[in-house]
Amino acid sequence: MAFYREDDSDIDINVTPLIDVVFILLIFFMISTTFIATPGFKINLPKANAPSIKEQDKNITIAISREGIINFDGKITGIKELKSLILSKRKRI
Asked: How much is the pTM?
């Protein structure tokens, strides 16, 4: 009776367990490492006395109704005043 024998040149090495072990060692060393703070000079930095800057609203809301009523940021205005209101708002931003 003849048995089929595979050629020995087709043998592959499975490296999946090796990669798993390397990652586990990497995680172990990352967790077990202690980080030493390097000593240095302690400097007392000056504190700022300027008032804090409040962030202004950068949005401009303009709504025009079917009747032609213009609403600029919640205030009813006319078409002639609209340009000056937009320009004054842009200067504040």
From this structure: 0.36
